[in-house]
Design goal:
Blueprint lengths: L14 E7 H4 L3 H8 L5 E7 L4 E6 L17 E5 L10 H9 L1 E5 L8 E3 L3 E4 L16 E2 L5 E2 L3 E4 L4 E3 L21 E12 L4 H16 L4
Antiparallel strand pairs: 1-12, 2-3, 2-12, 3-4, 4-5, 6-7, 7-10, 8-9, 10-11, 11-12
């Protein structure tokens, strides 16, 4: 819920609705995309085997867009400051740990926000061109010789990923354990959206109606 403080005002009071869970729905892009179809605002949460938790908030519905980026400046990256492996001695300790976040909003330096292909699910990128695509997302170095790339990128089975310094959000590697760019292993991936509804049934009806209107909209 700490993330809601950074949402656009129009959805800041809405309820969370989990649309996808790797544990529940299966570990593949083919499982993820149908479950999040049509959800404009989404929170991606990734938990690694090291207990680190991080992810993104984005404002454009996820889709397989081939070799091109998409998305809007409403997006940001986030991470829990402390690993879930950090000892907690009370519910108060746990709540405190879960509420301590680092937030990295869009810098405006490029438009490499969301990326989704057959092989890669990613947020953020390196370089300064708004036309950057996956093929052009090779890491670049600044005066301090930092290499820039995806804020995070997951492979198509959603079981491994990498994280880098990211121009799009001015963020460091989201994983402190794998700040060198080495792959991290994933325990779970969840994708949440927001809804004004108070029941799952009503949320599903509202979403179905939106998809129906989009599918049958005339130009």
């Amino acid at each position: 819920e700490s993330l809601q403080n950074f949402f656009p005002y129009s959805i800041s009071e809405e309820n969370f609705w989990m649309r996808y869970s790797l544990v529940k729905h299966g570990a593949s892009m083919h499982s993820l995309l149908p479950h999040v179809r049509g959800a404009r605002y989404t929170v991606v949460a990734i938990e690694t085997t090291d207990g680190e938790v991080f992810g993104s908030f984005t404002g454009t519905a996820w889709k397989n867009n081939g070799a091109s980026y998409f998305g809007s400046g409403e997006a940001f990256l986030w991470r829990l400051r402390q690993s879930r492996n950090t000892p907690c001695y009370s519910i108060v300790d746990l709540a405190h740990h879960e509420s301590e976040l680092d937030i990295y909003p869009w810098t405006g330096d490029n438009h490499c926000v969301q990326f989704c292909s057959n092989d890669t699910f990613a947020v953020g990128g390196g370089g300064i061109s708004s036309e950057t695509t996956f093929g052009g997302d090779a890491a670049i170095a600044d005066d301090e010789k930092k290499e820039y790339g995806f804020g995070f990128a997951l492979d198509n089975n959603l079981l491994h990923g990498t994280t880098s310094n990211c121009t799009t959000f001015g963020s460091p590697p989201l994983s402190k354990v794998h700040a060198d760019g080495s792959p991290f292993e994933i325990v779970n991936v969840e994708v949440w959206t927001t809804t004004p509804c108070f029941s799952l049934e009503d949320a599903e009806k509202l979403q179905f109606g939106k998809l129906f209107l989009e599918r049958h909209a005339t130009i």
